[in-house]
Amino acid sequence: MIYALAVALACVLASRGLIHYFQLESYQFPGYYRTLKRNWKNALLPGAILGLVLISLGLVKGMAGDGLVVNALAGAGILALGVFLCWISSKQKAKKALVFTPRVKRLYAVAAVVFALICCLLPHKGLFLFAFLLPVWVALAGLLAWPIEKLISEMYFRDAQRKLKARPDLIRIGITGSYGKTSVKFILGTLLSEKYQTLVTPSSFNTPMGVTKIIRTKLQPAHQVFVAEMGARHVGDIKEMCRLVHPTYGVLTSVGPQHLDTFKTLERIKKTKYELMDAIPQEGCCFFPDDGAICRELYDKTAKTRRLCCFNENGEADVWAKDVTVSPAGSRFELCTREGSIVCETKLLGEHNIQNILLAATVCLHLGLTLRQISRGIARLSPVEHRLQLIPSPGVTIIDDAFNSNPKGAEAALKVIRDFPGRRIIITPGMVELGEGEDEFNREFGRKMADCVDVAILVGVKHTQPIADGLKEAGFAAENIRPVKSLDEAAALLRQIGRPGDVALFENDLPDNYSEQ
Fold first, then answer.
1. Closest by alpha carbon to 249, among 173, 191, 363?
2. DSSP string spanning 80-104?
3. At residue 497, what are phi and psi to the nearest 5 degrees?
4. Which of 138, 136, 116 is nearest to 127 (CA)?
5. Residues facing 426 on adjacent strands
6. 120: which residues sit within 8 A by CB, 6+ positions away?
7. pLDDT-based confidence at 515, cuts 50/70/90?
8. Listed residue (246, 356, 254, 341) closest to 297, CA to CA
9. What phi-psi label fits residue 330: left (phi over 0), alpha (psi between -120 and 50 degrees) or beta?
10. What are phi and psi of 200, to 5 degrees?
11. For 328-449, where are the alpha helices, taking DSSP H only?
């Protein structure tokens, strides 16, 4: 019994890296399994080490006898190994470290109970097999913990619902889209603050539990507007968010190939994003950009009160821009409505940010802001961290667009760096979560990159091979394609080759569960 419990505890300690993977994948089993497949060496190594040592200890016990003292010493040895493996895992450099949230602590507790039961039921000779299958047992612990988490999350969810229900005066805005939703959210929050006390969900809090936490801990009686970003990876996710927030106003930023690994088809993405508009009441309003594609199609099918913005006047838009000038210092344009116009300036980079501003301005006009208030808010806009954030320096100027990447956003980032003077360098691992078409999306990224940059530092030799192929197809010089194994190597190479006057675009930064081994 002592020996079996020691093995169980050692396995719990050694599973730290696996639990980290589970957290990085938002405790979703399909994502966890994909991460195990990508990182199979790291996933199997702790259990394999424990298993091999258990085999050795079994041989020693066979020769020395199976007495209490022998079992206690063997148990102490395997427990010490578990502590060591946990320590090694904690010392590994991670872009996003394991956070010991209450959910992680509960998962550890369930794992301890499950591992202990299994180890006590198994014969000592079979414990090595348990260790070898450690990723499976972590998944089992996650599965058994799921009903507990569901019960707790529903309790918090209903508490947030009650808090919102007590505020019928609160203006509630939901924002969704394949990309651009976080940028539009912060732009909208800044503009609305010219007239209203506004609460905006911070960072990328866009899941039911993330938004629930903000409602429960941050929403105050003084707030007049609540803006909730609504993310989705599966059909029904936006519907669940709307069950919480009950938005009166819905904002769609874009619809495109994002999270195709879970959605599978663009049609399913379109259906999911439109769940927001389905939830808007008749007295509310739906806001769309005229992208000449899916957003315009969804605008046309909407029978509720709706508003449309576009980059150039098309005769139907409620808000549009003209006389647009874009430079590395920012943008200037005339914001036009059917009632009037005003000249606006912003430090945000790129034409796509003007489209984001137009969409936010359309919402603000509907909520009673004046053109002067909106223009004042636009002048105050600051880049969202890691989203085309310009970081000037006397050496290499950095454009930080490392938060994530998608086909549309990557194209916008390339247009931005293209307009900069001097030598242009891109550092990128490419794009992920694009399903079966991922390689082709990255190959096309490479083709478009060829005309916009002078040096391409590709992070992850295997994953970025399609980008390199696309660059070569477009006639990009092979000697200027510099594949490296990690972001640290990329940064070191940039320090080596960079010179004053260069500009470097960091386009995407994959989390640890996508790192190449």
1. 173
2. HHHHHHHHHHHHS--SS-----HHH
3. -100, -15
4. 116
5. 456, 505
6. 1, 4, 5, 8
7. low
8. 254
9. left
10. -115, 135
11. 351-366, 371-380, 407-418, 438-449
Q: How far apart are CA 460 and CA 428, in angstroms?
A: 9
Q: Across the strands, what pairs with 341?
A: 336
Tell me the C-alpha to C-alpha distance, in Å, between residue 87 and each of 7, 10, 15, 49, 91: 17, 12, 11, 14, 6
What is the band of 63 on the pLDDT scale with cuts at 50, 70, 90? low
Structure tokens at 126: 């079979």
Measured in degrees and rounded to the nearest 5, phi and psi for residue 328 equal -60, -15
H-type alpha helices, 274-370: 275-279, 294-301, 351-366
pLDDT in tens, 396-436: 999 998 877 788 888 889 999 998 988 999 999 998 878 78
For the chain, the 3-state helix, strand and coil shares in percent, each to the nearest 5, are 55, 15, 30
- Cα atoms found within 13 Å of the Cα of residue 118, Cβ hemisphere only: 24
Residue type, 497: I
Looking only at the bridges linking them, the beta strands covering 503-507 and 424-428 are parallel
Q: Which two tokens stand for residue 266?
A: 């663009």
Residue 443 CB partners (closer than 8 Å, separation 6+): 466, 467, 469, 470, 473
Enter the tokens of residue 40: 């199979």
Give one word for 435, left, alpha or beta, with left for phi > 0 and alpha for psi -120 to 50: left
**Among residues 434, 359, 43, which one has the least CA distance to residue 188?**
359
- Nearby residues of 492 by Cβ (< 8 Å), 6 or more positions away: none
Mean pLDDT value across residues 509-516: 62
pTM of the model: 0.82
The angle that helices 29-38 and 134-165 make with each other, rounded to 10 degrees, is 140
Q: What is the pLDDT of residues 29-59, one digit of tens each?
A: 888 998 898 888 889 999 999 999 998 887 7
Question: Given the structure tokens 């497949």, which residue do they identify?
Answer: 37
Other beta carbons within 10 angstroms of residue 69's beta carbon come to 9
